[in-house]
Amino acid sequence: MLTSHEWIAEDRKFFGQPNTAYDFETNDPNEAGRKISKLEETKTKLSKNVNMRAMNMLGKAEDQYNDLMRKKQIVENDKAKIETVIRELDEKKKEALRQAWEQVNKDFGSIFCMLLPGTQAKLLPPEGMDVLDGLEVKVAFGDVWKESLTELSGGQRSLVALSLILALLLFKPAPIYILDEVDAALDLSHTQNIGHMLRTHFKHSQVRTSATCCARTSNIHR
User: Does 183 map to a domain?
Assistant: First the structure.
C-alpha cells in the first residue's frame, strides 16, 4: 500500500492527531468512505454525459481562432496600407487639379482678353468654397466685373465659351485642331482677333478651319 500511495508515508505522522484531517475521533473514516463511494458514483454518472473529445475539439477551435486572428491582423495591416495609399493618391489628385486649374485659368484669361481686348476672364471657386468644390466663370470689362454671364451679349458669350475650350485644349495640346465656323456669329474685328490668338497660343499645333479668321495666317492651315 505504501508503494501504491506515496502520500501515506508523508502524512502518516498526522494520523490520529487532533485538529487534522486524520483526527479519526472527529472525522469518521467509515463516513468518509461512504462519501467517497457516493462521489465515485456521481463521477461515474457524470462521466457518461461528458464528451471525451471536447478537449480535442477545444484545441481545434483555439487553433482556428488563432488562425482567424492572425488573418484578421493581416487584413487590418493591408487595410491600413491601402488607406495610406488612397490618402496619398487623393493628395496627388488634389494637387494635380489645382495645377490644372492654375494653368487653365491663366490661359483662359489670356485667350479671352486677346479675343476681346480690354476685358478679363477668370475661373474662380464660389465664395467660401475651394477650387475642388467647383468653378465659376467671371468676366470683367475694364475693372467692372459682371455678376452673371447673362449680362453678356450672344457674341461675347461665344467668345467666353471659345476661350474656355481653347484653354482646356492648351493644357494638353494636340498636334492638330479642326475648327468649323468658330467666328460665324462674330463681327470682323473679333474674327481677326481669333486669327491673332491662334498664331500666338497654338504655334506648335496645326489648325484647320473653315472660318475666315485664319484666311491669311502663315502657320495655320485651312
Answer: yes
Per the DSSP assignment, residues forming a β-bridge with 207 are 177
Domain that holds residue 195: 173-222
**Domains contained in the chain, number:** 1
In a domain, 28, yes or no: no
Burial code (b: 16+ CB inside 10 Å, e: under 16) for 173-185 equals eeeebebeebbee
Cell numbers at residue 66, please?
A: 488563432
- pTM, two decimals, is 0.61
| Residue 175 scores a pLDDT above 80 | yes
pLDDT tens across 136-160, in order?
A: 999 999 889 999 999 998 888 989 9
Q: Distance between CA 99 and CA 21 in Å, rounded?
A: 90
Residue range 104-143, pLDDT digits in tens: 999 999 999 999 999 999 999 998 899 889 999 999 998 8
Helix (H) or strand (E) holding 100: helix 54-115
Q: Which amino acid is at 144?
A: V
- Residues near 219 by beta carbon (within 8 Å), at least 6 away in sequence: 199, 203
